[in-house]
């Protein structure tokens, strides 16, 4: 659990008034709103995240939003973290998935709040771990809507999955529509139409999303911002920073030697 937590990205953001382009993660997104509001778009529906609510996105779920004086904390736990906890609870190795995107449950809110507070204050790891398990087990027991035995991102979206694997293998390559369509054995017209219908974003936005995620992973492993930007396929650090801000609403300010983004 300690290793999983150290490899997990955390966010703490105050009074955001930003727009967030549609994007996705290969992890869960779990967070809470302290004040203000986020009008969030998830699975072609609109929700309001306001004070004392919690937010959950499943891996691969496309989402975005518009913030108004929004203060919040987020973290991005892996599929492995939640499936391991699900197994501890139910003695079955399955991946929990959540239908509710915004959860108005103050018990869950304060359980997550106490965990975030312990993590950010760098309290004893046993205390932080206990609060994490308490919060996530409450979420799993009360809000799991379905489970999957074998979960791979985009499994139910064939064209997207094929493109995802191809892009992951060649993240710094200069992609064009001919190459992407050929990889999917489709014409450019049909590839664009099917891809947008399956995922809700364009192939270009999809590639930018993956490059930002790749750069974040490199930075967390000690690679400098400039080097991570180049290795992830951006032309330079400012190109990475601009695209990071479109997805997250702020410029990347990583705490040195940490997995925290402020």
Automatic annotation (TrEMBL):
Entry keyword set: Activator, DNA-binding, Transcription, Transcription regulation
Keyword Transcription: yes
Key word Membrane present: no
GO molecular function, one term: DNA-binding transcription factor activity
PROSITE patterns: HTH_ARAC_FAMILY_1, HTH_ARAC_FAMILY_2
Pfam families, sorted: AraC_binding, HTH_18
Residue span, HTH araC/xylS-type domain: 161-258
Protein name, per record: AraC family transcriptional regulator
């Amino acid at each position: 659990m300690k290793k999983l937590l150290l490899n997990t990205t955390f966010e703490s953001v105050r009074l955001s008034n930003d727009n967030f382009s549609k994007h996705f993660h290969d992890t869960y997104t779990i967070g809470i709103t302290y004040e203000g509001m986020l009008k969030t778009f998830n699975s072609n529906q609109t929700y309001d995240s306001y004070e004392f609510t919690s937010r959950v996105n499943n891996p691969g779920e496309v989402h975005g939003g518009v913030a108004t004086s929004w203060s919040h904390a987020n973290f991005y736990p892996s599929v492995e973290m939640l499936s391991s906890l699900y197994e501890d609870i139910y003695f079955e190795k399955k991946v929990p998935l959540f239908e509710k995107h915004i959860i108005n449950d103050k018990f869950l809110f304060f359980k997550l709040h106490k965990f975030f507070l312990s993590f950010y204050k760098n309290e004893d790891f046993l205390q932080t771990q206990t609060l994490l398990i308490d919060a996530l087990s409450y979420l799993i027991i009360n809000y799991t809507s379905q489970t999957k035995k074998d979960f791979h991102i985009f499994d139910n979206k064939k064209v997207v999955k094929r493109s995802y694997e191809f892009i992951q293998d060649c993240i710094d390559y200069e992609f064009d529509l001919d190459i992407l369509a050929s990889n999917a054995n489709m014409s450019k017209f049909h590839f664009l139409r099917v891809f947008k219908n399956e995922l809700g974003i364009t192939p270009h936005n999809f590639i930018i999303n993956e490059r930002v995620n790749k750069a974040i992973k490199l930075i967390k492993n000690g690679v400098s911002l400039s080097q991570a930007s180049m290795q992830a396929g951006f032309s330079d650090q400012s190109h990475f920073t601009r695209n990071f801000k479109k997805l997250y609403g702020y410029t990347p300010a990583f705490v040195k030697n940490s997995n925290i983004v402020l």
